[in-house]
Structures are given as C-alpha cells and as structure tokens.
Design goal:
Residues 204-258 form the PAC domain. This protein is an alpha+beta fold and 699 residues long. The chain is 45% helix and 24% strand. It starts with a helix and ends in a 15-residue tail after the last helix. The protein binds ligand C2E and magnesium ion (2 copies). Ligand C2E is lined by residues 453, 469-470, 481-483, 486, 499, 502, 526-528, 558, 588-589, 612, 645-648, 666-667, 672, 696, 698.
C-alpha cells in the first residue's frame, strides 16, 4: 500500500515537473508510440484531442507538418532520428505564419534497456525577431547619415559608424578603444563634463551645438544629441552620441547674419545695424553728457552717372565713395550706406557742432576729388545735412529725419555743401518728400497731361505753333505748378517717364490736329536737361514721332541754354543728329543763361525764345528794350527766328512788332488750354480769349 502510494506520489511529482517546463514535451517509444506529453506541447501546435487519442507520433507529425514552410524537410529529419536513434539532435523550423520553433530530441535508455525519445519544442519566434531587429538596427546605424558614436563611462569609444568615419576622418579600427578626448577641443571639456553628468543621471541632451575636432584637430561645427546607454538590467553603462555636421548651416547662418547687417556692395553697415549703433550711442551720450553728430550724405546727381554709364560703373563709384568716406572719419565713427547714393555718418562723442562741420567739409572735399573708374574719369559732389544730438533731436528717428531734411536744404542751396538742421527747414523738406512720393504714382493715375498754348506770328497774327506745357492734377492739391514739381521730378529721375509721356501725347495730338483741324503749325515740347543727357534720348524722340506718324519738321524741342552749354560735345552730337532728321530746336528762356549768341552759332538751332522776364517790363524799361533789340538783331543775323514769351499786353506786342521780333506767345492771345478749348479757340480765334481751367495761378 505504501509502495503504491509512493509510486503514485513520484508520478505526480514527475507530471508536475513535465507540466512546469518552458518547453512543449513529448515522449515516444522507438516506434513512435506516444508515451506522454505536456499540455504546452498540445497547445503549441495546437494538436486536436482526437489525434492524440490515436497516440501514434507519425499521425501527429503528418498533421503538424501541414503548418510548416518546409514540411518535407521536417518529416525527413524526424524519420532520420527514428532510423538512427542519434542520442541528441537539434533543428529549427518555421511555420507558414512566421512562427519559429526550435526542436530538440534526446534518445534515452530506460532501466529495462527500453529506449524512449524525448522531444522538446520551444517557441523562439520572439527571440528570432529580436535578433533580426538587432541586425536591422546595426544596419541602420551603419548607414545613418549622422555620425553615431558610443562610449563607455570611462570615455572610451566603443562604437563608431561609417558616418563618424566620414565626419571625423578616423577609421573605426583606429579610434575604437581610444578616449573620447581625442575629439574634444580643450575649451569644450567643461561642457562635455556637464553633459556626461546629465547622462549619468539618465538624462539626454538634444541638438546641442558645439565644436569637435576631426583628424588633424580640424574644427567641425556639430549638433549633437547625447543619450545614456543602458544594459539589459537598466544600468547606465555609457553614452551614445549622434552628431551632425552643421558647418554649412553655420556658414549660411553667418551669411544671413551678415546680409541682415551689412550692405553687400560696399561692405558698410546697413540701415538696421546703423540704427542699432546709433541707439547705443545715444544712450551713452545721454549718460555721459556728450554730443553726437549725424551726417546725411547724398551724392549730387549720382543718378545721371548711373543712367548714362550703367549700373556697373555706378556700383564701382559707390564702392570708391564708401572707401573714401571710411578713411576720412575716425575708427570709432560709423559710416553706413542706407541705399542708393545715400550715406550716413555717425560721429560719436563730439563737443561742439564745429567738429561736425569740419568733418562735413573734409568729406565734401575728399568726395569731390576725381574718380578713375575703368576708362572714365568721374567727378562727383556731395551734399551733407547735419543733425546734432541732443540739440536737433533726441531719438534715432528725429535725428535721421532732421539730417535728411538738412541735406535736402543743402541740395536746394546749390549742392556740394553742408547744412545744419534748424527747425524752419522741416516744413519745406517734408513738402518736397511728399511731392516726390505723390509724383511716383501720378503717371499711373493719369494725373499728368499736357495743355497747349498757341504761338503767333507777330506781323500777321497767324498761328505758327503751339507749346505743350505739362500739368499735374493732384487729387487733393488740384493743379500743381510745373515750377514746383519739375525740379523734384528731375532729382528723382521721374522726369524721364513724365517727359516721354508729354512728348508722345503731344505728337499724337499734333498729328490729329493736322489731320482734322487743318492746323499746320509746329508742336513745341519742353525737354529737361536730365532727359536730354540720356544716351537714348534721340531714340525716344524718334519713337514718339514714328508711333504718332507726325512728321519731324512739325516737332520742335525746347532746350534751355544750360542744356546746350553743358556737356558740349555730346550735346552738339545729339542736336546735329536731331537736325539731320528734320526736327526743330529752340532755346527756351533765352537771356537767363549767359550763353553768348556767337557761341550758339555752332549749334543747329531754329528759334530763340526770349525769356518772359525781359518782356514783362516792356515797353517802359529801357534796359529790357535794349536787350530785346539786341537779341532780335543778333538772332536775325544768325538766321534764327525770335519769339517773345509771356506777352500779356497789346503794348508789349506793339513794341515787339516795332523791333521786328518774329513771333510771340502769351496770355494776350491765349492761356495754355486743354485740346477741346484749343480747338474752339482755333475756330473762333477770339483775340480776347482768356483761356482755360488749366492755367496755373501765376505769381
Ligand atoms: P516755359 O517753357 O518757359 O513755359 C512758359 C511758361 O510761361 C508756362 O508756365 C506758361 O504757362 C507761362 N506763360 C505763358 N504765357 C504767359 C504770360 O503771358 N504771362 C505769364 N505770367 N506766364 C505765361 P508753366 O506752364 O507754369 O511752365 C513753367 C515751366 O515749366 C516751363 O517754362 C518749362 O520750363 C517747364 N515745363 C512745362 N512743361 C514742361 C514739360 O513738359 N517738360 C519739361 N521738362 N518742362 C516743362
Ligand atoms: Mg518752354
Ligand atoms: Mg520759357
């Protein structure tokens, strides 16, 4: 009884042991009869109950093999074990659904020399996956574009991928086992210690920008992410570093930084940097009670050089100007280019305004020395406006504005000079700036148009021509006088488009009058010096003629004496060319510009227009009479027709007739008119016609 109990007891123990193993177990005899198995074995496959009831291994095997990728190989291996009874064998097989089992078979001899086979199966799917995951990870690390370095807690390098080889220049074979210090410049050691302390406390540091040494101590800008490396028990055993080369990004950042603060052309600080420095200078000056001077420097008529010689020459000239300015002021002063031909100079720490005046004089003198740019010798002058802190402004904006205003005033006084700020300057310059601003959009808004004033032969009263005069109908100010906006248009270059517009419009109008009104006279168009100096001026004129269909003899260009006298050679060339095309030329405002008649002889001129100021004082003023008599006589002797401008009274007309002046123009006959009014005037020819809505109020 006791024996039976003991037997039962040990059987239970065995059964418990079999059930408790981590493997699926099956025991068969040498012919395949199933002797015992555990539940795990049944579940693993799983094997249906009725099949187990059969209790023949071969039957079970047939069922099992059906689930495998390579059933034949599986069956063969087992057949072989039954055939050879090899004491121990081992293999791995895969299921069609991806699971992987490891099989072990052991042949055991029992006491009665019976043989049993113990089959154990283990599901190693996860272990397999882990292994392949590791392999994938290694491949990723190896092919990463970022350098990946692993080091232990002693700072010894234990891992080094291909990108690290590339970035630092060390092969993994030569660097693994070395200290990480090889890569760290001395001034970054402290930083490295700090980060390693973080690593030791389990923290990671992301995208930290620093410098590392490559082979040959070559500095490399890198962004590094450092994380702790743990063993399977979770203990920190080292650090991994992912480093990315940011040299290029650093460079472009520096470049952007530079562009944000410096002028590309001259290398001078730009407006942003300049105002920054000014702000700091103002703070210092207010703290230590000294003065600052702001000099606004504008090159006179720089635009002409740019337009006539091209931007490449213009740019070189600006560079030369920048260099001269820089070398004229002290190291501590800031020279900046605000854009175009506008420069500013900040004189830090002055005591009296005289010091600023001295610098301005020096700048003006230095800038007016001739420049040799390629084959051109160029002359330039500058106008300087000065504002002083705290006298003419206490903040950046007001100092800038007031220096700017003063500069305009210096220009207005004839350029090539300096002007200190004073309060009464503000209104004038503001006005001028506003005018220029509005003028920029005037053409597009159709606010610019010509009006026409007839020109008559004094002896017969015949209409020989009509002068086109520009008008600007400002949306708020109403009609703005050309006398006030043409200088602004000339300084800003806007005159080119405005002038061309009037020219084209006038040619079209004249052509129409020729065809529809039987009008036979010329159309006279005023030309600014700025327009005339353009290289393509003659092209512009020919194009206007061609596009309108007006014949060249019907166009007369009114030039002032200064246009003809300055830049004589190219002026002569242009005038001869225009004459050769049949276009007529007149000298406007004659008598105001000091040109001698004999000098004018060399130019191809058709008409002189005696300035209104001489006509005004007729017929009483003897000087005026003498001048007019002389002009008419000399004009006639040169074969020119002479016209008097601004004829307002019959008395003036009478005198002009008496000295045999050829033609006249003025309010006596008609004011400048819009085309409709001119047509009506032509038809009616009322001598007392007093004109039109488009006459400026004359002072
Ligand atoms: P300007 O060419 O000498 O034109 C004659 C000016 O005298 C015109 O002034 C005209 O309206 C005015 N006027 C005519 N008859 C009389 C008169 O009997 N009495 C008085 N007191 N004035 C008379 P406006 O139209 O104001 O033009 C002024 C100047 O503006 C012109 O002088 C001319 O130099 C310039 N200008 C006008 N239109 C243009 C243009 O299209 N292009 C250019 N570049 N300049 C122009
Ligand atoms: Mg004129
Ligand atoms: Mg005139």
């Amino acid at each position: 009884m006791k024996k039976e109990f003991e037997l039962n007891y040990s059987l239970s123990v065995l059964k418990a042991a079999i059930e408790a193993t981590v493997d699926g177990l099956l025991v068969t005899d040498r012919r395949g009869k199933v002797l015992c198995y555990n539940q795990l074995y049944v579940n693993m496959w799983p094997i249906p109950g009725e099949l187990l009831a059969h209790a023949r291994h071969q039957a079970i095997l047939g069922y099992c093999a059906g689930q495998l990728r390579d059933p034949e190989q599986f069956l063969r291996s087992i057949e072989e074990i039954y055939a050879t009874l090899a004491p121990e064998s081992f293999n791995v097989f895969e299921f069609r659904n991806g699971r992987v089992f490891e099989r072990c078979a052991k042949v055991k001899t029992l006491e009665g020399s019976d043989i049993v086979l113990v089959w154990s199966f283990r599901d190693i799917t996860e272990r397999r996956q882990g292994e392949s995951y590791k392999a994938q990870l290694a491949a990723i690390v190896e092919s990463s574009n970022d350098a990946i370095i692993v080091k232990d807690l002693n700072g010894i390098i234990t891992g080094w991928n291909a990108a690290a080889e590339e970035l630092f220049g060390y092969r993994s074979g030569e660097i693994i086992g070395s200290s990480i210090l090889t890569l760290i410049p001395p001034d970054r050691l402290e930083e490295e210690d700090r980060i390693m302390n973080l690593v030791k406390s389990g923290k990671r540091t992301d995208h930290f920008e620093t410098v590392r040494w490559g082979k040959g101590k070559k500095s490399i800008d890198v962004s590094v992410t450092i994380s702790p490396v743990k063993d399977s028990a979770g203990n920190i055993i080292g650090a991994s570093k992912i480093a990315r080369d940011i040299t290029q990004r650093k460079e472009s950042q520096e470049r952007i930084e530079y562009l944000a603060h410096y002028d590309l052309l001259t290398g001078l600080p730009n407006r942003a940097l300049f105002t920054d420095r000014m702000r700091i200078a103002i703070e210092n000056a207010s703290r230590y009670a000294f003065r600052l001077a702001l000099l606004f420097v504008d090159l006179d008529r720089f635009k002409l050089i740019n337009d006539s010689l091209g931007h490449a020459i213009g740019d070189k000239l600006l560079k030369a100007v920048a260099e001269r300015m820089q070398s004229t002021v002290r190291q501590a002063d800031t020279v900046s280019r605000l854009g175009g031909d506008e420069f500013v100079v900040l004189l830090g720490r002055i005591h009296t305004a005289t010091e600023a005046a001295r610098v301005a004089e020096k700048l003006i003198a230095v800038l007016s020395q001739p420049y040799q740019i390629e084959q051109h010798e160029l002359l330039l002058t500058a106008s300087v406006g000065i504002s002083i802190y705290p006298d003419s402004g206490k903040d950046v904006n007001s100092l800038m504005r007031n220096a700017d205003v003063s500069m305009y005033s210096a220009k207005g006084q004839g350029r090539n000079r300096y002007q200190f700020y004073s309060e009464d300057l503000t209104s004038g310059a503001d006005e001028r700036l506003r005018l220029e601003y509005d003028l920029r959009s005037a053409l597009a808004r159709d606010e610019i148009f010509p009006v026409y004033q007839p020109q008559l032969e004094l002896a017969t009263g015949r209409v020989v021509g009509v002068e086109a005069l520009m008008r600007w109908k400002h949306p708020e100010r109403g009609l703005v006088s050309p006398a006030s906006f043409i200088p602004v248009a000339e300084d800003s270059g806007l005159i080119l488009s405005l002038g061309e517009h009037i020219l084209r419009e006038s040619c079209l109008q004249a052509r129409q009058w020729h065809e529809q009104q039987g009008f036979e006279g010329t159309i006279a168009v005023n030309v600014s010096a700025v327009q005339f100096r353009q290289n393509d001026f003659t092209d512009v004129v020919l194009r206007a003629l061609a596009d309108s269909g007006l014949s060249p003899e019907c166009l007369e260009l009114e030039l002032t004496e200064s246009v003809v006298m300055h830049g004589v050679e190219s002026a002569t060339q242009k005038m001869c060319f225009l004459e050769s095309r049949g276009i007529k030329l007149a000298i406007d405002d004659f008598g105001t510009g000091y040109s001698s008649l004999s000098y004018l002889r060399q130019f191809a001129i058709d008409r002189l227009k005696i300035d209104r100021s001489f006509v005004r004082d007729l017929p009483q003023d003897t000087d005026a009479k003498a001048i007019i008599r002389a002009t008419v006589a000399m004009g006639r002797s040169l074969g020119l027709r002479v016209m008097a401008e601004g004829v307002e009274t019959e008395g003036q007309a009478e005198y002009l007739r008496s000295v045999q002046c050829d033609e006249s123009q003025g309010y006596l006959y008609a004011r400048p008119m819009r085309p409709d009014d001119f047509e009506a005037w032509l038809k009616g020819r009322k001598p007392d016609f007093r004109g039109s809505r488009y006459q400026m109020a004359q002072s």
